[in-house]
Design a protein that fits this description.
This protein is of the alpha/beta class. Helices cover about 30% and strands about 25% of the residues. The protein has five helices and eight strands, in the order αβαβαββαββαββ. Strands 1, 2, 3, 4, 5, 6, 7 and 8 form an eight-stranded mixed sheet that branches.
Length: about 190
């Protein structure tokens, strides 16, 4: 099933690292490495993934991460417990699933306390998002903490969906938010592209 999302993750990569040279990238929720695999064509400075499930990280390492060599690092604890360096990343991909009912609260806390602190000025943030619209809470979080953001629509062709597809849709958004410097955070309106 994860191979069906490869082009979607390629689009996340393209928007996150466009115009950067040897970006330092942080991914929250490594999974089987679909996003990381799309980074292999980009000459990253470093790639850090947070994946608290040892077996999942082992599979991703064998499948993808070994190709990064010493540039890849996996942190084996939940992001809520990880100590991450400030102003260390050019791009952050947030692709994790909290317990039911906590998705927006976790997202808001992550953006305010982790993404904003860890991104360099001009750095970009994206997150996995299925469906056609970003909810009002997430829009408010993006408007508050980023200079600008846009959401680019993408649909996986129905013919490309695996037989065991479990998501309720084949439609996604690729949201990308850009962090300004301290004087410009939250200075601009959202630019939700549909």
């Amino acid at each position: 099933m994860f191979r069906a999302e490869a082009d979607l993750m390629r689009r996340h990569v393209r928007h996150l690292v466009a115009g950067t040279r040897r970006p330092d990238v942080l991914e929250i929720g490594l999974g089987l490495g679909v996003f990381a695999e799309q980074l292999l064509d980009v000459r990253v400075g470093s790639y850090t993934a947070i994946e608290p499930h040892d077996e999942v990280a082992r599979l991703a390492r064998a499948r993808v991460l070994d190709a990064f060599g010493a540039r890849a690092r996996v942190i084996g604890e939940p992001w809520q417990l990880a100590t991450l360096p400030t102003r260390a990343y050019d791009a952050i991909m947030y692709d994790t699933w909290p317990p039911d009912g906590y998705a927006d609260a976790d997202f808001a806390w992550f953006v305010e306390h982790v993404a904003v602190a860890c991104l360099r000025p001009g750095g970009r943030f994206s997150f996995f998002h299925s469906g056609d619209a970003i909810g009002s809470l997430r829009r408010r979080v993006l408007d508050t903490h980023f200079t600008s953001w846009a959401a680019h629509p993408y649909s996986i062709p129905v013919a490309g969906l695996p037989a065991m597809w479990t998501k309720p849709t084949n439609r996604f958004l690729v949201p990308v938010a850009t962090l300004g410097d301290e004087r410009h955070v939250g200075a601009g309106p959202s630019a939700d592209i549909r």
